[in-house]
Amino acid sequence: MFLSRQKFLLACFILAFALVPCFAQIGIMQQPGSDIGAQFPGVSPQTGANAQQRITGSITGSVRTVANKAVGNARVEITALAQGQPVATAYTGDNGNFAVSALPPGDYELRVQSGVLEASERVQVNDGQTWVTLRMPAPSAQGGNANAPTVSVQQMRVPDKAASFLRKAQEALNKNRLEEASKNLSKALASYPQYAQALAMRGILDLQQGQAQQAADDANRAIQSDPNYGTGYLVMGAALNAQSKFQEALRSLSRAEVLVPNAWQGYFESSKALLRLGKFQESLQQINKAFTLADPSQHPEFHVIKGYAYMALHIYTPALTEFQAYLNQAPNGPYTGAVRNTAEKIRPLAAAAVAR
User: Fold this and answer.
1) Contact (Cβ atoms closer than 8 angstroms) between residue 354 and residue 316
2) Would you say residue 39 has pLDDT above 50?
């Protein structure tokens, strides 16, 4: 039995501020039953004559630390996922950049290694250049988990009373008791008005209630209170996306990527913004990253974004596969009607591309 739309949206972002400082995604792509494609300029089914054969492509990338410093002399191994074996190897220059050419269209995994540190990224290669940035985790001086969240000075100043109210808000939110969560957040902020985590959580509730500007205001206060708290930038990016301020959203989400590189929500929000801006290949890269960081069976909306990005690139067979994946996972989901209609429109185009 599928959740109601409100519960579906909330179930998409169970919070874990104490362990992983990020929020889960609010479903703000569109209203149920509307034409998803209409909100993405240039994303629409094309005539069969436009279905193009891709011959070869290339990957141009950069390897950076979470502090955005270039990683030189890192080994980059490119694996074709269809064959499950490496097809190319490259090394980064002093500026952290690398390039690999003459790659057949398809899905690839890039794995970069520098000393004992590793990072990976999945990308879709078509004709032309595919751009990608890989982020290396910060080394741990104590030998612990390099990706473990850090506790900022601001968080260490939080009074126990405020922290207790935040925990109660978290527990209420996990149980979909929104009013109770809101009351506990108000108490937490009354005790400590600069509480970045409470402000960010309230921003998520704002988004849940369709109050995008109020969410942006709360996110801005969270960022001002703690400029190194990545969740504040994630909430800001989602709020700006909800207001169709896509370039501004990408700037905030770019900062979030540095602070919380393993938060899938940032890549998902970025993929939406890039899709709306007509940057389809880059949108694919971002949604592919979200796929590697979260279980797509728990987030069927991933397939919607990926399907429309493929469709905009006139790659109809993979687009149809993504749309069908969404329909299989969410037969009564909030976007089912629009996705089914779009899938039927591109089905003959996919068949024509296969026939060639």
Assistant:
1) no
2) no
Helix (H) or strand (E) holding 28: none
Task: Report in angstroms the alpha-carbon separations of 165 from 176, 177, 181, 187, 200.
Answer: 16, 14, 9, 6, 14
- Stated pTM of the model: 0.67
Residue 310, SS3 per DSSP: helix
| Cβ atoms 267, 293 nearer than 8 A | yes
DSSP 49-66: GG------EEEEEEEEET
Domains of the chain: 5-48+148-355 (1.25.40.10), 54-136 (2.60.40.10)
DSSP 3-state of 69: coil
Summarize pLDDT for 213-270 with one digit per residue, the tens: 999 999 999 999 998 889 999 999 999 999 999 999 999 999 998 888 888 999 999 9
Phi, psi of 229 (to 5 degrees): -95, 105
Please, what's the b/e burial string for 258-289 (b: 16 or more CB within 10 A of its CB; e: otherwise)? bbbbbbbbbbbbbbbbbbbbebbbbbbbbbbb
pLDDT value of residue 92: 86
Mean pLDDT value of segment 158-178: 88
Per-residue pLDDT tens digits for 129-160: 788 888 887 654 334 343 344 445 556 678 88
DSSP 128: E
At residue 355, the pLDDT reads 65
Give how far Cα 321 sits from Cα of 48, 308, 331, Å.
Answer: 18, 11, 15
**Residue 122 pairs with which residues in a beta bridge?**
109
What contacts 302, CB < 8 A, 6 or more positions away? 268, 287, 290, 291, 294, 296
- 251: helix, coil or strand? helix
Strand intervals (E) in the chain:
57-65, 75-80, 85-91, 97-103, 106-114, 117-125, 128-136
